[in-house]
Write a structure and sequence with these properties.
CATH topology: GMP Synthetase, Chain A, domain 3
Shape: elongated
CATH superfamily: Fe-S cluster assembly (FSCA)
Mean pLDDT: 87
Number of helices: 2
CATH class: Alpha Beta
Strand content: 15-25%
Radius of gyration: 13 Å
Low-confidence stretches: none
Number of domains: 1
Helix content: 25-40%
Length: about 100
């Protein structure tokens, strides 16, 4: 399992909630990209598949795809996204 919380931005890096859907999608995309090197260092990877409202679909790859702690990793991604987006509901789910 990758400890994605270690990649969470410092509290001073918290941003105001996005003003537009395009800004929100960019923040989500950029955050997933920032998490990738840490996951790759552990032999895994994450790919953003879709953003559907408050649902973010991702695909876990490599060592992450069969890991018994994948749900913990998804939870860490969700917490990181909530922080970056300034709170509010967000659901991170694996793409099938």
């Amino acid at each position: 399992m990758t400890n994605v919380s270690r990649f969470q931005p410092a509290p001073s890096d918290a941003t105001a909630p996005p003003r537009s859907e395009e800004e929100r999608q960019k923040l989500i995309t950029d955050t997933i990209e920032q998490l990738r090197p840490g996951m790759q260092a552990d032999g895994g990877d994450i790919e953003l598949v879709a953003i559907e409202g408050h649902k973010v679909k991702v695909r876990l790859k490599g060592a992450c795809s069969g890991c018994s702690l994948a749900n913990e990793t998804l939870g860490g991604v969700r917490r990181t996204l909530m922080h970056v987006l300034g709170g509010g509901p967000i659901l991170v789910v694996p793409a099938l």
